[in-house]
Amino acid sequence: MRYERKYQIDNMSADQIRLTIRMNPAGFITSYPDRIVNNIYFDSIDFSKLRENRDGISKRVKIRYRWYGGLEDFRTGILEFKQKENLLGKKEKAELDLKEVHDLQDLVQMVRAVTKSEKPLLPVLMNRYRRSYFETTNGTYRITVDDDLEFYPIFEKNLNTPFQEIIEADAADWIKETACILEFKYPDKDDPFVDQISQNLPFRLTKYSKFATGLQKSVGISV
């Protein structure tokens, strides 16, 4: 597992944040070209995973289908299990063959077959954002910056809804998030250098979940 510190930044542009990272004495450099990240999040019909987030359950697992690029590239993604234990986190992945997936029901059946969850899982939220990647020259410390966040609720969608209809949703139906999200990631070990890096990040550590925030903003489900 690794440590993951999140910062919700409301008072700076993404360009200003990226400049601040490059000026950090730790010597962060761009590690990967910016790209668009897309996710479909899954939860039970009673939103048990959302409640775990809201109630601060220390050990929890978030399930999402993630792909990069345009919405039309959804068949190229991978299923991820994001495990959290307080500030520690790790990901496990499972490949899905979406060549014959045409609607939400097809995707749900594949996800349920892989997860074998006690409660049947349903797609509840889609989101997308631009991500910038930074790391120190030795690759030990990483920072990502997410901006242009948008959320699109799908938990009320009929499972027979074609994927094509979802990816062609009107831009006005997407809910925009004005904040930028910075994540500082580093190994699970006692490292005094972490404090030096974080002290030169002029941002306040926050608790932020795109999953929970998206449901709150798009359909008013309280977190």
Low-pLDDT residue spans = none
The figure for the number of domains is: 1
- Overall, the morphology is globular
SSE sequence, one letter per element: EHEHEEEHEEHEEHH
Instruction: Provide the spatial order of strands within the biggest beta sheet.
Output: 1-5-4-3-2-6-7-9
Mean pLDDT score: 91
CATH architecture level-2 label: Alpha-Beta Barrel
Could you say which structural class the secondary elements and strand pairing correspond to? Answer: alpha+beta
Outline the structure in words.
The chain is an alpha+beta fold and 223 residues long. The protein has one domain: mRNA Triphosphatase Cet1, Chain A (Alpha-Beta Barrel), CATH 3.20.100.30. Helices cover 22% and strands 38% of the residues. It has an eight-stranded antiparallel β-barrel, surrounded by four helices. The longest helix has 12 residues.
Can you give me a brief rundown of this structure?
By secondary structure, the chain is an alpha+beta fold. The chain contains 6 helices and 9 strands, in the order E-H-E-H-E-E-E-H-E-E-H-E-E-H-H. The protein has a single domain, classed as mRNA Triphosphatase Cet1, Chain A (Alpha-Beta Barrel).
Secondary structure elements and pairings:
Layout: E1 2-9, H1 14-22, E2 29-43, H2 48-54, E3 59-68, E4 78-85, E5 88-94, H3 104-115, E6 122-135, E7 142-153, H4 163-167, E8 175-177, E9 180-187, H5 193-199, H6 210-219
